[in-house]
Write a structure and sequence with these properties.
Layout lengths: L28 H10 L8 E4 L4 E12 L5 E8 L4 E4 L1 H7 L4 H25 L17 H7 L11 E15 L4 E13 L5 E9 L2 H4 L8 E10 L20 E11 L1
Antiparallel strand pairs: 1-2, 2-3, 3-4, 5-6, 5-8, 6-7, 8-9
Amino acid sequence: MANTLPHVEDSEETTYLPPKGDYETFADDAHYEEKVREWGLSVKKEYWYKERTYQRIVTIKGYEVYGKTQEYNTIVLEFEDGNLTCIHPAYLKEMQSPSFAKTAVSDKEVAKEKKKETTTKVITEKPAMAESKPPAKKAEPEQKTKKEKAPKIELPTDKVHFTASVKQFALTWNHFNEDNDEVVVLENVVIEQDEPVKIGLAWCSHSKTLKKLELEPGNTLEFDAKIVKKKLAKGKDVDEEFIIEDPVHYKINNPSKLKKS
């Protein structure tokens, strides 16, 4: 069924959730396309922001990062009237569906019913009898625990210069679009400055920019980029050659000024 919601340029009914302070912006079109695909959205310049009775055109201005390892994003949208609001990528994706408004109404009714049921259950249920606790699990060997932990490194917040070499290509599970993304795993990663900082292993998206370099394992690279603490998740149902066995705790974002040797 076609979407019949009226298009409005501004609305007093919209509740804005503006970003708190500074947020990440896109370095170029390639970076924009990479992030949009990571969120499971079709690449375009304008999207629909929908409520039950209307829809508005928005553009993506940037994103916020959060989580202990900075692995989650909140998209920053701009309306035609200049207002900004933040939204979860999966929710913006749902808004692009023609049936979104109808679904939103149904979900609200279901949520109300569930809230009623939960309240009644909490009041009427009797406390459960205390159960005997299972024996505590044996602690893992100290050596294995240390292997999983990332070294404590104070990461720079701005772009810095790196040297690294290509270790392998791998696939990582993207929970936004529920599919595997191709990534490049780097080794011997070093932040080149007055006092070089050895990172070890890091990973980055195998973007169009990197694909143009036709990288192979063993290639050495120089580039400028930002680095964040974000563990590489393993891909699902993939061939052994695309699985990375060693834990990789750092991600390289938006590399530029790339030189291959």
